[in-house]
Specification:
This protein has about 800 residues and is an alpha+beta fold. It has 19 helices and 38 strands. The strands form ten sheets. Strands 26-29-30-34-33-32-31 form a seven-stranded mixed beta sheet, sandwiched between helices. A hairpin with a 2-residue loop joins strand 7 and strand 8. Helix 9 crosses helix 11 and helix 12 runs antiparallel to helix 15.
Length: about 800
């Protein structure tokens, strides 16, 4: 909402600098998003001029050399003008050298085809007070030469751009904002521009020029209309054009401009019909039919459905209710009779229609927020005065009014003690009443507080006592409220077991130097293809978003891999190739039900080197499978989950360097190095990743640790080296050793791997460190020898292993 400050000051002049006014409005909840300057600068160089002569330019057919009296007491100034309507005797707007034009250009003395020009004779678009460039503006002859142009026309001013929240449609009108200024600053509030009605609110004659039937009263609570005869279509006066331009609207003609001006001032949209184009002299408000079509004012053919609302005449739909009028009944240069329609519409229906048709207008943006039926007559009264003043029209007796005003006003009891309890600050009852009356609430004393009657324009916003407390607080000054804590009532916060485990898992990665990222829950619909996932893979069947932010965020993510790779690519492209990142977030998988399956996932990615290059480490190790496995192990150990990995393939992982992650024998995720083709798709040289279903992992966690007494008896260590087939995983070897070692085997660890001529082709040698310990005695060799023999036998019989000499 663009609010010209000069226009606003007509109804509430705070007499504050624009910056101070901006801050005051923002602190009361009417946020000023920006302050713009509209129009020209260096106003002292814009003056009234009198054209003394206008001679043909000797060297240009379309130029005239004018002598203009600009009232400085000196000789007339020569100005070369290209407007076809310039003539001697005219009173005109002149920009002298030094003037700053609306586009920011500083005017200088110029030479046009050999003739000096000391300024410009102006058209309205050059002052940003209109769009006409076909000719210069011709002003009232009573104006004196040399008079400041700014005293005659609103050629310059500041404009507030407001961010109006959906619950405050009353601030989508200049007078509504003036009401806020009045309450926030104490500035006097002028009477509303609809205070006096120049029309007749009574019943229309028994033979009205038009009939109105509302077949959907649930979607059209009120429909008002007035008939204007003897209308003269013409350009609007400069002051009206200037205000529309400053507010961001384009002037068209006086009738259309009146509807826009009244909407901007009253906050309620209007629509003007050419009454002679209303077929059958009858308008019907009804639900549209599926597939029904209408050509709107923008010249496009729109297809409607049964959830939309139309206004029709005898020839069919003539307007999409609350959104845009139809081309067939628009006001044109030959219009002499106008039907001015001001109606109220159901906000949800207007919003849905606007979204479905991708047709957003100034009207739909207001109606969708919910306007009160009472506001319709306010705009109608304002339009009546303007139609009489600017078009010379006469208004027919009576007003068509179907539906009437809204429900009775609600009265809410506001307790003084409740205000203090919610705000932590006592605000006197008199001050509360002053604030609420300034906002046009009805206020009466009532025992322990006030009885407050809600005005119609706040009916949908203020519905309970807490809403009134908010009104008092925001006007009195939110910055005055003390910083207080809410009453605890003896309660104390604590983390649940799942929350503690979740933090422990994240802290394990943070403590090892990984940086957390936060990716979108939405992703690119083509992510599955870039990850080389099969069409049948659930991760390649994402949930489609009906109204995505962009084409690149059209589906819900099914894996964290996409956001991890996107961040890695962005950093690598900026020279940050050594990365250790992780993300903990929700992923969404199809479930066959109405809602998808959601779970928290934890993923990490490593690229580049694991440590910076130093004088002692010229070539630091690079991230690979075992590096990322180490970080996964840190997470699993932090939450006390017994886990293992076993070889497996994923389409996006290197086929020989990938595995599935198991917890409690159940698959919970994957780990591996990125497939070269996938790495190329993200412009990465290489990367290592893991991703686990954190909810399932934590389901296997030992939330309550079991402690065992430390034994003071020493351990007995035995090193064992065995050759095995090359395709036997080390994890399988460790598992077999644990099974055979029994309770006395405290630990087993692989500390060496050898492949070469000494063990033969197709075989490898693993060196194992075995640690034996008993809780009640010191073990001797004879205690461990049988266990060693069982271990060797298990390796031989189960895995084809041989003990190395």
């Amino acid at each position: 909402m663009r609010v010209p400050v000069q226009w606003l000051a007509e109804y509430a002049d705070a007499a504050l600098p624009v910056k101070a006014l901006e801050e005051r409005l923002t602190m009361t909840g009417t946020k000023v998003e920006a302050v713009h300057h509209h129009g020209v600068g260096a106003l002292e160089h814009f003056v009234i001029g009198k054209v003394l002569s206008a001679e043909q330019h000797p060297d240009a057919d379309r130029l005239r050399v004018c002598q203009v009296d600009v009232g400085d007491g000196g000789d007339p100034q020569q100005i070369v003008c290209g407007a076809p309507n310039v003539a001697a005797g005219q009173t005109v707007a002149v920009a002298r050298p030094g003037a700053v034009m609306a586009d920011g250009t500083k005017l200088k003395t110029a030479k046009l085809r050999g003739q000096q020009s000391h300024g410009m004779i102006l058209a309205e678009d050059e002052l940003a007070i209109g769009t006409d460039h076909d000719g210069i503006m011709v002003l009232d002859d009573t104006l004196a030469a040399g008079s400041p142009l700014a005293a005659v026309l609103p050629i310059s001013g500041d404009v507030l751009e407001l961010e109006v929240t959906p619950n405050r449609p009353d601030c989508l009108g200049i007078y509504g904002v003036a009401r806020e200024v009045h309450a926030a600053t104490g500035a006097a509030l002028a009477p509303p521009p609809w205070a006096q009605d120049q029309g007749s609110a009574g019943e229309i004659s028994s033979h009205p020029p038009v009939q109105v039937v509302v077949e959907a009263p649930d979607l059209c609570p009120r429909f008002t209309a007035r008939v204007f005869e003897n209308v003269t279509i013409a350009p609007s006066p400069p002051w009206l054009k200037a205000r529309l331009m400053a507010a961001g609207m384009r002037p068209i003609n006086n009738v259309v401009d009146i509807t826009n001006y009244a909407m901007l001032l009253a906050g309620h949209p209007l629509h003007a019909f050419d009454l002679d184009r209303v077929a059958g002299g009858r308008l019907t408000v009804r639900r549209a039919g599926d597939g029904e079509q209408i050509t709107t004012l923008d010249g496009l053919l729109r297809t409607l459905d049964a959830d939309m609302l139309v206004i029709e005449d005898a020839d069919g739909p003539t307007s999409i209710a609350g959104v845009m009028g139809g081309e067939r009944s628009e006001v044109h240069a030959g219009t002499t009779r106008v039907l001015m329609e001001v109606a109220s519409w159901d906000g949800y229906t207007i919003h849905r229609t606007s979204q479905k048709l991708t047709l957003r207008s100034e009207a739909s943006g207001r109606f969708e927020k919910g306007l009160a039926p009472e506001q319709a007559m306010e705009a109608q009264i304002l339009a009546t005065r303007l139609m009489h003043e600017l078009t010379g029209a006469t208004v027919a007796p009576g007003t068509i009014d179907v539906g009437g005003e809204g429900p009775p006003a609600q009265t809410i009891h506001l307790r003084e003690a409740r205000v203090e309890a919610l705000l932590g600050l006592a605000i006197g009852r008199d001050r509360q009443a002053e604030i609420l009356r300034a906002l046009e609430f009805g206020v009466t004393e009532a025992g322990d507080g006030l009885d407050v009657t809600v005005p119609a324009f706040r009916r949908n916003d203020v519905t309970r006592e807490a809403d009134l407390v908010e009104e008092v607080a925001r006007i009195d000054g939110l910055d005055n409220l003390p910083a207080t804590l809410p009453a605890r009532r003896g309660s104390a916060g604590s983390l649940s077991v799942a929350q503690r485990l979740h933090r422990r898992a994240v802290d394990a990665l943070v403590g090892r130097g990984l940086h957390e990222i936060v990716g979108w829950s939405f992703t690119d619909p083509g992510l599955g293809e870039r990850l080389r996932l099969d069409a049948e893979d659930p991760r390649n069947q994402p949930i489609v978003i009906e109204n995505p932010m962009s084409a690149d965020h059209g589906v819900m993510r099914t894996t964290l891999a996409g956001s991890l790779l996107d961040v890695a690519r962005r950093n690598d492209a900026r020279g940050m190739g050594d990365l250790a990142l992780f993300e903990c977030g929700t992923v969404y998988l199809p479930s066959g039900e109405q809602l998808p399956h959601e779970h928290r996932a934890l993923g990490a990615i490593l690229t580049g080197r694991l440590a910076p290059q130093t004088w002692g480490t010229r070539e630091p190790p690079r991230a690979g499978f075992f590096a990322v496995k180490g970080f996964l192990g840190a997470v699993m150990d932090a939450v006390r989950v017994r886990w293992e990995v076993e070889p497996a393939t994923e389409p996006f992982l290197h086929p020989g360097r990938s595995a599935r992650v198991l917890a409690g024998g159940v698959e919970v995720g994957w780990i591996g190095e990125l497939h070269p083709l996938v790495a190329r798709a993200w412009d990465l040289e290489a990367a290592s990743l893991f991703e686990v279903d954190l909810d399932r992992v934590l389901g296997h966690a030992d939330a309550v640790p079991q402690y065992r007494d430390l034994t003071s008896f020493p351990a007995l260590r035995i090193d064992l080296s065995a050759t095995l087939p090359d395709d036997v995983p080390a994890a399988q070897v460790v598992h077999a050793v644990r099974e055979a070692g029994g309770k006395l085997l405290a630990d087993v660890r692989v500390f060496d791997l050898y492949r070469g001529a000494q063990v033969g082709e197709g075989r490898k040698s693993l060196a194992l460190a075995l640690t034996f310990r008993a809780p009640d005695r010191t073990l001797a060799d004879e205690d461990v020898a049988p266990l060693r023999a069982r271990i060797v036998a298990a390796l031989h019989d189960g895995l084809g292993g041989e003990l190395r000499g």
